[in-house]
Amino acid sequence: MKELIRIDRIDEFLSLDIKAWIKCNLTNPRRFAKEPVDWELMFGGVCWYIWKARNAVVFRDNAVLPQRSILEQARAWVATVAVAGPTMEQPRTSSGNHQRMRLPWDPPPYGWVKINTDAAQGQNYEGLILA
């Protein structure tokens, strides 16, 4: 945890009620994060990998530790999503740095339906699954 959370905010990070904790982490990344860039992705990734590890123990009786730590898995996932996500490079600033801007999701025009798909597949699945 000390790799992710500012040491001066750790007590507050651990003492908030769940609703405030989630809201604060998703809306104010500079409050707790040591590295606030892509914090909403890192926060979500860490929560997701903790959930997956918990489910492996509960549902598959798989108490074996993963080959990579939850933090390593989340960092790899964030790096992939940050590169592959819908962004638009902005011209270099006067300091020579690029700025990234996330492109928003736009709803379809009235009367149309937008379907997001996933290419996930497995042994036990046949056909297309829509969620």
From TrEMBL:
<protein>
    <recommendedName>
        <fullName>RNase H type-1 domain-containing protein</fullName>
    </recommendedName>
</protein>
